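Task: sequence design from structure.
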C-alpha cells in the first residue's frame, strides 16, 4: 500500500509567527547561528492506489489552503 507524504508550508511572503517564536526561543538557548525558522505540516496518507490528480485535489480541497500555503508531496512505496 503506497504512502503519500504531503508537506504544507506558508507561502514565503507571509509572516510565520510560530516560526518566529521558535527561532527566538532557539536563539535564547544559544543557537545564534539560526537565521530563521518556518513551521509547516507533514501529512501521511495511506492510499490503495496513487493518482497524482486525486492527490492534488485532496491537497487543494482540504489539506492545504492554496491562497496562503504551498505544498508538495512525495510517494513512498
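Answer:
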Amino acid at each position: 500500500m503506497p504512502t503519500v507524504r504531503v508537506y504544507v508550508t506558508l507561502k514565503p511572503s507571509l509572516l510565520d509567527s510560530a516560526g518566529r517564536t521558535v527561532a527566538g526561543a532557539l536563539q535564547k538557548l544559544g543557537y545564534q547561528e539560526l537565521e530563521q525558522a518556518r513551521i509547516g505540516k507533514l501529512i501521511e496518507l495511506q492510499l490503495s492506489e496513487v493518482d497524482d490528480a486525486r492527490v492534488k485535489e485532496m491537497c487543494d480541497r482540504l489539506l492545504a489552503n492554496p491562497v496562503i500555503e504551498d505544498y508538495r508531496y512525495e510517494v513512498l512505496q
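The mean pLDDT is 97.
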